[in-house]
Design a protein that fits this description.
The chain is globular, with a radius of gyration of 43 Å. With 351 residues, the protein is mainly alpha-helical. Among the domains are: 177 residues, no CATH class; 61 residues, no CATH class. Strands 1-2 form a two-stranded antiparallel ribbon. The chain starts with 18 loop residues before the first helix and ends with a helix. The chain contains 14 helices and 2 strands, in the order αααααααααααββααα. Strand 1 and strand 2 form a beta hairpin. InterPro entries: Ankyrin-MYND_dom_contain_2 (IPR052452), Znf_MYND (IPR002893). It comes from Micrurus corallinus (Brazilian coral snake).
Length: 351
């Protein structure tokens, strides 16, 4: 609401930080994404009026609202973009899509030729324009946009990876007309060495570059449309996530081929996780018992020292008692008397 009311995103505060930088500093990544992907409606309304020698505007006023909604979206998943086109009958026509593509290309060119280049917005406009051109191709067919959605979702048989979707995104990046831009070179370096079907996917790299989202950490995303916050899983395999039942039905035609295989993988992961948990519990119990034994050993030695000291203290009085007992004294006196008597007898005999 603040952005739509005319708030400037480039204004800095007393410490020289923009709103997006402050939001990133405190961990509000969703706010950063919204700010970075905001495009003022006034800039789009410029194309709804005839300019110069034009007799009619480049963009009909009735298409400005639906197009602005797609431009400001933070979800760049190709299926989501096609669904946004499909839900608005004004956009889902060949002529309307052609005009929108022309306007998007003009915005992209303007972003690159202005004094302060906006590479992020330029690549985003080019990417949406490429998706619109795919829509034009399928609108001329019988199945129309439903056929495009199925093509984007269809996975290969061995693992269900959507190959056509990956190739579409890579093709849009490759067709970006300004090859010298730093952001494009970064995208190419990150995507080109990766085989189709491996991580990171072209969509994840493009999303990180445009929206600033660092991967898909601490969040679940819909397998069909890429919407954040999906919380519903396939009841059979528990491996695929959807945001609602509509997305699940849309994806079922290709997911049913790999559902049983994913179920086996999930069960295997559960068993391995249980084994790992029990192993960790055993190690924890063993370490706890070892620490208890080590802590009890000094106390045992201390008790032994006290006991031995006590034995010595008990022995000393017993010795004293033995020396000073009356029986022993009498015995010693008798021995002394007998020795004296013997000595006297020897002296008498000598005399």
């Amino acid at each position: 609401m603040v952005l739509e009311a005319g708030a400037e995103i480039d204004v800095v505060n007393s410490v020289g930080r923009t709103a997006a930088q402050m939001a990133a500093f405190v961990g509000q990544h969703d706010c950063v994404t919204v700010i970075n992907n905001f495009f003022p409606r006034e800039k789009l309304n410029y194309y709804t009026k005839p300019q110069g020698l034009d007799k009619e505007p480049k963009l009909p006023i009735k298409l400005a609202g639906p197009l602005h909604k797609i431009i400001t979206t933070t979800n760049l998943h190709p299926v989501k973009v096609v669904l946004l086109v499909k839900e608005n009958p004004l956009l889902a026509e060949v002529e309307a899509m052609q005009k929108c593509c022309k306007v998007l290309d003009l915005i992209c060119e303007k972003c690159m030729k202005q004094r302060e280049m906006n590479e992020v917005l330029a690549i985003k406009m080019h990417y949406i324009s490429c998706i619109f051109k795919k829509c034009i191709l399928f609108l001329e067919r019988e199945d129309k946009l439903d056929g495009l959605i199925k093509s984007l979702l269809k996975g290969r048989e061995r693992d269900g990876f959507p190959v056509y979707q990956e190739k579409t995104i890579r093709e849009s990046i490759r067709k970006f007309p300004y090859c010298e831009t730093t952001l494009l070179q970064q995208l190419v370096r990150n995507i080109s060495p990766v085989e189709i079907g491996s991580d990171p996917t072209a969509f994840s790299v493009l999303t990180q570059a445009i929206t600033g989202q660092i991967g898909f950490i601490d969040a679940e995303f819909c397998t069909t449309c890429g919407e954040k916050g999906a919380d519903k899983r396939c009841s059979t395999c528990k491996m695929v996530i959807y945001c609602d039942q509509t997305c699940q039905k849309m994806h079922w035609f290709t997911h049913k081929k790999s559902c049983n295989m994913l179920k086996k993988i999930y069960e295997k992961q559960i068993v391995e996780a249980a084994k790992e948990k029990s192993k960790e519990a055993a190690q924890t119990a063993e370490s706890t018992s070892t620490s208890e034994e080590q802590s009890s050993e000094p106390e045992t030695h201390k008790d032994m020292d006290i006991k031995s000291t006590g034995d010595q203290s008990e022995m000393i009085p017993s010795i004293k008692m033995t020396v000073s007992s009356p029986a022993v004294c009498n015995f010693l006196e008798e021995e002394t008397t007998s020795e004296n008597i013997g000595n006297e007898k020897v002296q008498e005999s000598e005399e």
